[in-house]
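Fold these two proteins, one after the other.
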Amino acid sequence: MKVKYIFAVIITVVSVFVAVHVSKTEADANRINCIARMVYVQGGVIQHLTLGFNFNKQTHSGVVNVEGILFPGWGNELNINRDIYFDFMQDANSYTLISDEVHIIKGESPGRDVLEQTLPEFYSAANKKINYTISREENSGYLFSNAGMPLFFCECS
């Protein structure tokens, strides 16, 4: 009787661990969470940016937080801090992101016109599209590219 009880407890514990692992694996497969850090230079403007991407493949929606500093060639540094909420369409590794809402977070200083000079419109206005090919790079993160050209690496978070 005691052996049956111990055996039942062991089976129950193993079953719980397997269920938790499978559940976490499925949840991870339905999400992309990563952070990209970059220095973006265009003309006389330099930007130190951190992009935090969160995709939910079940709802086909996500958010990217853009945070950093913009050094315009004509004045003082400007703080960037915004969330872009988006929907996306996916075809294999090709993603089309469509911005729903751009939420400017307190403390951001450049105007939309300044950011539009250096970043794609997706990052500064609603209802704008951007296309990425997103490839998983082993367990370390994702490579974002466009038309076969790598744009940035996004490290798993």
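Now the second one:
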Amino acid sequence: MRKSGLALVELLGAVIIFGLVLSLSAMILSTITKANARIVEQSQANTEMTLLTSLLDDTYQDFGATNYIPCVGITNCIILINAFEYVVDLENETINLVVHNPELELNISLLNNRLYIDNELITINHFTLATDSTLTYEIIGSELILNLDLTFVGELNTYTYHYEQTLTLETIPT
């Protein structure tokens, strides 16, 4: 005699198959979520470095450094100097040499895993700087090459960036 409905074995098989499908779906969803979180963090790191690059470029251009002095006893530090600049005098239609006395200074440093520009802490949202972040410079001929190697530490990963700026060293014209 045959009864309609599901046998216990069929029901058990259906539950197992449903459990496997549900488990596989959860694993796929988890993988997608983790990948998305990594992509978001990478995007945030890129955005922060782009903003920082823009800030450094603007600061460098606005300051108009003509020379430098090393920070005494401190690594990961440089003091840029603006000894003079040319100013346009629209009234007299001339370009005048203005010598700064004392010279203007702009301090850039990496201290205690923090970046400072002109002794002001630069905030890097969502990340901290790793201890292997460095600020170095080298002199090649009459050029100073400033290198900033930053490692951002996020919740999921670390991101390394390099910033380089070249300064032509100048003396006050006579």
